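Quick bug: Glutamate racemase output formatted oddly.
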Amino acid sequence: MPIGFFDSGVGGLSVLREAIKLLPNEHFIYFGDSKNAPYGVKKVEEVRELTHKAVEFLIDKGAKAIVIACNTATSAAISTLRETYTSMPVIGIEPALKPAVKLHRDGAVVIMATPVTLQEKKFINLMEKYKDESEIVSMPCPGLVEFIEKGNIDGEEVRQYLEEKFKIYKNIEIGSIVLGCTHYPFVKNLIKDILGYDVPIIDGGFGTSKELKRKLEELKVLSGSEEKGDVKIYNSLEGDNIIKISNKLLYS
Ligand code: DGL
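Here's what came back:
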């Protein structure tokens, strides 16, 4: 039985690529809702409804576990999903604030994420937990997901977008950056290049994949196969183009 991955679009592939490394013998199915992306500027109720629909799709395809590989969808829907699907693991993702704070570097921890993630209770509680240990600065990035959805991860427009963003934050000493949206790891190299100095840039893909493995082990539902598993990608957008972009991002 496959493990089902979901994101508002192509972003969750940054989590899936970590999971494939960690669990190479598992089968994976991925559903990206690119037709309705971006989620990060929608009403929370709408994000919740779309997320529940997507999870139903993955369960209909036989998923034995679900990974909500989207920070926005996790903050909007993880509680109601866990209430609905009590007999299967539902793993979510949240901005990797803890590992960033624990680095104890000088300067602020800058969290790049969607407006919905940053304004939801889940993140506010997380921030509350660590606010005395580090200066935490939110950087909402509406509009960034749209570039990545088109496969544009290093073009002039996305570079300009990020240059503008970091210009606004130029008076802040940055100690580390948290990529609190699963689309953003695809522009990590560009962010490094724009910053021009070395700071740790942390995302939650590996941590979430480790949590997935731990859960499957605990429930004794890991694949026993010694062969490499399959990866099947579905998307709500019609046509081949989005699948081509997805494959390029996943295997780049
Ligand atoms: N990839 C999603 C996340 O991790 C959000 C993208 C969107 O706005 O649709 O937050």
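Actually, after a second look the formatting is fine. DSSP finds eleven helices and nine strands in the chain. Closing.
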